[in-house]
Write a structure and sequence with these properties.
Helix content: 40-55%
Radius of gyration: 31 Å
Largest sheet: 8 strands, mixed
Strand content: 15-25%
Structural class: alpha/beta
Number of strands: 30
Shape: globular
Length: 911
């Protein structure tokens, strides 16, 4: 029983100690420091014959991260990928292959411990049991790496005394039992890196591997995240259409919060790469979205997919990059010459005649995406233009005829009645050579004829009518996953001599008797209660809809409940709570009431102009209801003769003071605002952060106005000087606060700090909402109430997502007593009863004319919900595409080099 001392200065530690002790050993238990790919790089040959190998490593994760398996995987991969994947994989390929082989044979022999367990595992030690049963303990400074054992100056003490060995074993067992298994995703990444190689676009063999090759090392995957199975499934559906028809015509109608932006963006990228492979003329790829979503699209495309996109600024008439910098000359004619491969344009430009609109109508497109596509619709009501397409729908009719691939996105494809869906499907039909709805006389063009079939009220029993419906458009074999229908469609095309691209079949008399029998059999077949034409119809083929509840039932989404505040029964101190709130609204002061009344008066004066509608009338009301600061800043700006621009759902609206009456009303309002000494919303935020302990849980605070968000961040930073606070906003306005100082900071850095639990309070604007993953925070405060349940659901989706450690998160909605906001929220909250699905049945936007008649607002919402419930009774779902892919994208080893990919996406539109 002796202690032996080793120094790498005098003795090679790998040969002089490790090799000697591991020869014929029974077990090897090791505290190895930080986990890297170089584990076993030196010892792997000697460990091959050791039966019991266990290694515990350090990983820079918090205890909260380790609680959730998916988050643990993502965070570990994100940490690993901070270094250059390209260089790591090239220089250390053999190392990855050895590690992969060892893990494949031995299983879970590595565990990782969080920093919180004992800080960084700087102490290195181990116990080796020799072939004769004798145990040897060792303690030293070397990592389990080639550098640690062979190159660095290291020291090691060997101790074979029973008490020394027992002491090391106790330390090891404590760490091993507290640690977690090495995530499977990390093991798969080890395997992928051992096989990784870069390819040119022309070397990618199949359409199915284009998107994985381009995106497997995108920011999303480098962060340890991945596209969800249903998002991959949408790309698969696009490729199915591409193979069958040479064109893609799809409406993505997934529910809010399921990641339509990433689904559509990935599909657009795939179609772009296909076009590049065929070396066709580089036609434009354009994303049309409401003005309020254009910046969100641009941010998510670069932050998640690594795709740089240009955004057209409707006022400046110039293309902007992700930092809001001009990257093109100014002038409406330059809208046809986007300097990047993908351009983003506001649909607000299409509402009124404009030079840009006229130019866009004359362009041919490779890919067009229309987000919030339900805004393209037939005019409602009973006037002379009732039933006619609105300006956006008419524009899309013209665009569709000139577009190779057309993708529409909306969470609300049906607005008031089932017939609304046909507005969008008819857009898909344009330019499709008929494969969407068939020839001009097909019944599929007429919702009143086929809705009873789709809803199950009627069955097709007559084979003549069944063939009439089936022959145009004739489905392809791959248009369905149901085996019997696939066989029927294949046999029909083969016997009739039709190609996949043919969409019209002949008369029923052309069918041989056996095929007629097969058709009759299928018309009679009922599967899961659905008849043939409920399952097999053009709408199912061209509308992809997945529901959150379905994904939750299949275990693909965590079912996270939401407690909606303010609610007396949910707070710790009802007395303090009641001093702030009256039911669902904040108690106000006489100063606020006076300021709000003056804001209403100013709105009434503006509304006399006779244009601008709800925007004019509600301009100052909404800002005052957001915060006193937002009201003061807006009033000051207008009185200085400047223009206020608002991003509305229809586009950019502008207002400036024009008359003495307007100026006088605004001055009166400003005096009232400046007389306020405190804001009830700030008091409520303080109460929930401090008294209800939301600060301990982590909190994201949202506002639709930057002025309000900045004010909240400034105020909280002053009250919590030792707290690190982030302000997450568009362009270059993000900030970081600590100890009385504030600095500008990139959004990515803020996101990383939240993920690392370095930030517990994040204040954000809606412009930065998409793509923001804040599952380490457990509560959310809406400082103001956008009259848009979709926007509210996007906000709660920042924390109600996979990796959230809390089974129930908390959301506080702040509205002032006696305001329009209170009335609107009262009607909303009455309908937000399902703690797991708050917004599922609510309209995407509360319309201005609904606000005009607040007494009937609830009735209008109920009518909308009921009509949607009835209208969506037929099956539009693609549940098969929800399943995870067999050949997972994360395993893709053939990689399109990021430099080549970036160069490709920075090639502008051909003139």
């Amino acid at each position: 029983m002796t202690i032996r001392r080793f120094s790498s200065r005098t003795t090679p530690l790998d040969q002089g100690f490790l090799a000697d002790q591991l020869q014929g050993a029974r077990s090897y238990h090791r505290i190895a420091g930080y986990f890297t790919s170089s584990l076993f790089e030196v010892a792997h040959e000697w460990l091959e014959s050791v039966a019991d190998v266990r290694i515990v490593c350090n990983v820079d994760l918090s205890p909260e991260d380790l609680k959730v398996a998916q988050l643990r995987e993502a965070r570990m991969l994100g940490r690993w990928n901070e270094r250059s994947i390209e260089a790591e994989s090239l220089l250390n390929r053999e190392r990855y292959r050895r590690l992969d082989a060892f893990l494949a044979r031995r299983g879970q022999v590595i565990r990782v411990a969080p920093d919180s367990l004992c800080g960084f595992l700087h102490g290195k030690a181990g116990v080796i049991e020799r072939a004769d049963g004798r145990k040897v303990g060792f303690i030293g400074s070397m990592n389990e790496t080639r550098h640690g054992w062979q190159q660095h100056y290291e020291i090691l003490w060997e101790d074979d005394s029973p008490e020394g060995v027992a002491w090391i074993e106790a330390e090891f067992e404590h760490l091993w039992n507290a640690a977690k298994p090495l995530p499977e995703a990390v093991c798969r990444e080890v395997r992928r890196r051992g096989r990784r190689f870069e390819v040119d676009l022309g070397e990618i063999a199949t359409e199915e591997t284009l998107a994985p090759a381009a995106l497997i090392e995108s920011p999303l995957y480098r962060e340890g995240m991945s596209l969800q199975p249903w998002q991959q499934g949408f790309v698969t559906e696009c490729l199915r259409h591409y193979k069958d028809h040479g064109q893609v015509r799809l409406l993505l109608a997934d529910e809010v919060g399921l990641g339509k932006t990433l689904s559509l963006g990935t599909a657009a990228l795939t179609l772009c790469l296909l076009a590049e492979q065929t070396r066709r003329r580089r036609k434009p790829i354009v994303i049309f979205a409401p003005a309020t979503l254009c910046e969100q699209w641009q941010t998510e495309m670069i932050d998640k997919l690594g795709i740089p996109c240009a955004r057209w600024h409707s006022t400046r008439k110039v293309w902007l990059d992700t930092e809001a910098r001009a990257i093109s000359p100014s002038g409406p004619e330059h809208i046809a010459r986007c300097p990047l491969r993908i351009g983003i344009v506001s649909t607000g430009l299409m509402v009124q005649p404009s030079r840009e609109k006229a130019i866009l109508v004359g362009i041919g497109y490779a890919v067009v995406i229309l987000d919030e596509a339900h805004k393209a619709r037939s005019r409602q009501g009973y006037g002379a233009d009732a039933g006619e397409p609105n300006a956006l729908l008419a524009f899309m009719h013209a665009i569709a005829d000139r577009t190779d691939h057309l993708l529409l996105g909306t969470a609300t494809p049906i607005q008031t009645k089932a017939e609304d869906l046909w507005d969008l499907v008819r857009v898909l039909h344009r330019g499709s050579q008929g494969f969407v709805l068939g020839h001009a006389l097909s019944d599929w063009h007429c919702p009143e004829r086929v809705l009873p079939l789709l809803g199950g009220a009627q069955r097709v029993e007559d084979i003549d009518y069944g063939w009439q419906l089936l022959r145009s458009p004739l489905p392809t074999r791959d248009s369905t996953n149901e085996p019997n229908a696939r066989r029927l469609f294949h046999n029909l095309r083969e016997d009739l001599g039709l190609r996949a691209s043919d969409h019209l079949a002949g008369a029923l008399t052309d069918l041989p008797p056996e095929l007629r029998d097969d058709l009759e059999t299928e018309l009679d077949r009922v599967i899961d209660g659905a008849s043939f034409f409920q399952r097999e119809n053009p709408l199912v083929r061209h509308v992809v809809l997945r529901k959150r509840t379905t994904l939750e039932e299949r275990g693909l989404l965590d079912k996270i409940a939401v407690n909606v505040h303010p609610e007396t029964g949910l707070v710790k101190d009802p007395h303090l709570f009641n001093a702030l709130f009256q039911d669902i609204a904040l108690r106000t002061t006489p100063d606020f009431d006076r300021a709000y009344q003056e804001a209403r008066e100013f709105g009434s004066v503006l509304a006399k102009r006779g244009k601008g509608g709800g925007f004019m009338k509600n301009l100052m009301q909404q800002r005052v209801c957001s915060s006193v600061v937002a009201g003061i800043n807006t009033a000051t700006k207008l009185l200085a003769g400047r223009t206020v621009t608002e991003q509305t759902e229809e586009g950019e609206e502008e207002v400036a003071v024009q008359t003495d009456t307007e100026r006088a009303a605004l001055q009166t309002l400003l005096v009232a605002l400046e007389g306020m000494t405190d804001d009830p919303k700030l008091r409520a935020i303080r109460y929930y952060l401090n008294e209800e302990s939301w600060l301990d849980l982590g909190c994201i605070i949202f506002s639709q106005y930057y002025d309000t968000a900045r004010w909240v961040a400034d105020a909280l930073a002053a009250e919590h000087p030792v707290e690190t606070i982030g302000l997450y906003a568009g362009a270059d306005r993000s900030r970081l606060y600590r100890e009385g100082q504030a600095v500008g900071i990139a959004r990515e850095a803020l996101k990383r700090m939240v993920a690392d639990h370095d930030i517990r309070i994040m204040v954000a604007t809606d412009a930065a909402c998409e793509g923001l993953n804040l599952q380490t925070l457990g509560t959310l405060i809406n400082v103001d109430l956008p009259w848009n349940p979709t926007r509210l659901e996007q906000r709660i989706g920042r924390i109600k997502r996979f990796g959230q450690a809390r089974a129930t998160v908390d959301m506080l909605n702040l509205v002032h007593q006696g305001t329009v906001d209170e009335t609107v929220y009262a009607r909303l909250s009455e309908r937000m009863r399902n703690r797991y699905d708050l917004f599922g049945g609510l309209p995407d936007t509360i319309k201005d004319d609904w606000i005009d008649d607040l007494e009937t607002l609830g009735e209008k919402m109920d009518r909308y919900i009921e009509e949607r419930r009835q209208a969506t009774g037929f099956d539009l779902r693609y549940n098969d595409s929800i399943k995870p892919a067999d050949d997972a994208w994360r395993d893709c080893a053939a990689v399109l080099a990021r430099r080549d990919f970036d160069n490709l996406m920075r090639r502008g539109w051909s003139a």
